[in-house]
Amino acid sequence: MPDLLILQKRILVDASPVLYDRPLTPESFLEGWEVHNAHWEVHDGAFWGMNPHPAPGVIFTRQGFPGNVLVECTARVLLPSTHDIDVMWNMSWDTEKNQRGPAYVAGVQGWWEGKVGIEKSPEYRLIAAAPCPWFEPEHDYHIQAGSVDGHCFLFVDGVLRLELLDPHPIDSSIHNRIGFEAYQSMICVRDISVRQIIWEPRPLSYPQEF
Description:
Blueprint: E1 4-6, E2 9-11, E3 18-20, H1 26-32, E4 33-36, E5 39-43, E6 46-51, E7 57-61, E8 69-77, E9 85-91, E10 93-94, E11 99-100, E12 103-110, E13 115-121, E14 127-131, E15 141-148, E16 151-156, E17 159-165, E18 177-182, E19 185-196, E20 199-201
Antiparallel strand pairs: 1-2, 2-20, 3-19, 4-7, 5-6, 6-19, 7-18, 8-15, 8-19, 9-12, 9-18, 10-11, 12-13, 13-14, 15-16, 16-17
């Protein structure tokens, strides 16, 4: 699998150990995942999520994945829904408030105006987003999202769509689940895997132009 190139870093995907790649079955669903505020089910080897409300409807792992992780999946929006594929990592769930705790959330066709972006919950004071006019419902997108010590990134179909640097990274020794979210949307997610990121420095400089 090709390496992922972000600012000053090369993520060595093939060298990054696989932490999770279990097939999605009714058994693995019940044993390995929690659902909150939405309807999720397993259908044809994929998770199908439906949430008609303007709020996070999540499914996330019972298992934790501390450290720098790369989440990969294939996902699409199911018509008549037209928006919001959301992937989460370094996350936790606040049971008392029944809402997401600290987490990085990468979204495709979200933020009410059709944007691709990354945000940090629960304060949502760290957000980066950009238009994604290339998005189409019912199209399968290969999503790769994660972070290296707070350096967050989102690739869609092998193209780097966004990256940002969090000056105060989430403590993944405490907040370390991965998951997916339907936000007033219906989505299908399959081919889920999690890797522990192995990376190397990639010094950048401009060539002399004049």
